[in-house]
Amino acid sequence: MNALIKLELARALRNKKFLFFSVLYPAILFLIFSSSSGSNQKVDDTGQTVATYLMVSMASFGALTAVLMGNSERIAKERESGWVRQLRMTTLPGRGYVLAKTASAAVVSLPSIIVVFAAAAVIKQVRLDAWQWLALTGVIWAGSLVFAALGVALGYLASGDAVRPITMIVYFGLSILGGLWMPSTTFPKILQDIAKWLPTHAYAALGRAIEQSQAPSTTDIAILAGYFVLFAGGAAWLYRKDTLKA
Amino acid sequence: MTTTAAPATTPVVGFDQVSKTYGSVRAVDGLSLRLYPGETVALLGPNGAGKSTTLDLLLGLKHPDTGTVSLFGGSPREAIVAGRVGAMLQSGGLMDEVTVEELVKLFCSLHPKPYKAADVMARAGIAQIADRKVNKLSGGQVQRVRFALATAGDSDLIILDEPTTGMDVSARQAFWATMREQADQGRTVLFATHYLEEADAIADRVLVLHRGRLLADGTAAEIKAKAGSRRVSFDLEGGIDEAALRALPFLTSVTVSNSGSAAGSGQTVRIQSSDADATVHALYGLGVYPRNLEVAGLGLEQAFVAITEAEEAKQS
């Protein structure tokens, strides 16, 4: 299985478009969004500067892009091309394919987090303690597994021409409604109520708790864990259905 | 239970009353067969005969509705995990954006008894395109890469589903030469084809599949014989007793036509016979003097058409 992970990774690193959107694009968005406000300007309710607030949002967004895009469209395409069938002619265990995809996406999502952090620290002078940087990286990276599972589920749910639009809707819907692009506190009341229950909102909230040296809220952890069980369970169920049908 | 003495060896492939239905279509219908070590077997049938479904069942990609499928006495998956099966599927896609060499190396590393990637590529005739991206290959080249993946290790059974699709004639011949090497090493080879000449030229056993059922199982020669597959033709001068002709032994069909020669009254008789020697012997016994006597074998193609037509006539 390591051989497949290596090859998946080599392929991901060769794909310039994918690298741009998952590694550079979140950092660029961070710089654009944060440039419109002064470095001392605070986000309402949080006491954080805009740059600090957006850093977590965009690092989460970057990790989300890498794992969601990396999994869903590829899996749908490769199911259709018969590559998944071809792999079933080998000793690779059935779940090995999905694990290799997720592992290689996770390797790409790590630099996407770090590039946003670097841009924030160097250009926007965001300052945090060493343990906060490490904890943020760890939490955002680990939390991206929730969306990797969602990517796998979408890859087995949709096929052909449908997978891209569906992924895009889910991706932008979760990003924007979850408050990754702009604070959800600026939303109308009804959207704020929705945002509270989205996995992306809980995901970014974990990072913000670390920035404020607070313990993460148990509600956010519970929401994220609930979505992980839902997505991973859905992915496993869809995978099994696909295997029987293939 | 049959009482015939079974060969002592475990069959490589065993199908026992296997059926698979899609909606109202019976893709495979009560199929039973055994393949033994070292056989080169063609699975022959027109499109829609159930060849691909049979191979999918064999490889565990699909599960039978009823009946059992075994490979080397165990489940298909067990045989694959043990590295005993290499398969080239018609529907097997390739990972794109990687090179041919990377892909072959991946499959070598996934095989329990791998060969060296360089040797695998050389044997499959793809060494010179090792650095090419997989998604930039021609149809014939893709087939060779798939063949390389199916032969990445020392498997006992090689499955090939219409392997020469997309190849021109010379590529096809080169391919079968490569495949023969596999068979000569004592492997069991099972290939599906609708190129009938391939089954005739390469297989030492031919399974004819039609509407998901096994129509015939034997050597190519036996299958031709089963279809009444030698053609006897000759000219006769003067009157012919057609009833006597039709009474000849081992006939499957007779046609009589005017030979159109300048001599006028001559007629040409064409007979299909399942035992041409006996038929011709009896013909002389009629006291006639056939001229321009020719006895020729039918290609497997005609044999195949005859078998499937007979089957369809029986059903309607």
From TrEMBL, chain A:
The keyword Transmembrane applies. It comes from the Bacteria. It is found in: Membrane. It holds the Pfam family ABC2_membrane_3. One of its GO terms (molecular function) is ABC-type transporter activity. GO terms for biological process: response to antibiotic. Keywords: Antibiotic resistance, Membrane, Transmembrane, Transmembrane helix. Its main location: membrane. One of its GO terms (cellular component) is ATP-binding cassette (ABC) transporter complex. The chain crosses the membrane at residues 18-38, 50-69, 98-123, 135-158, 165-182, 221-239. Residues 42-235 form the ABC-2 type transporter transmembrane domain. It is a multi-pass membrane protein. PANTHER family: NODULATION PROTEIN J (PTHR43229). This is ABC transporter.
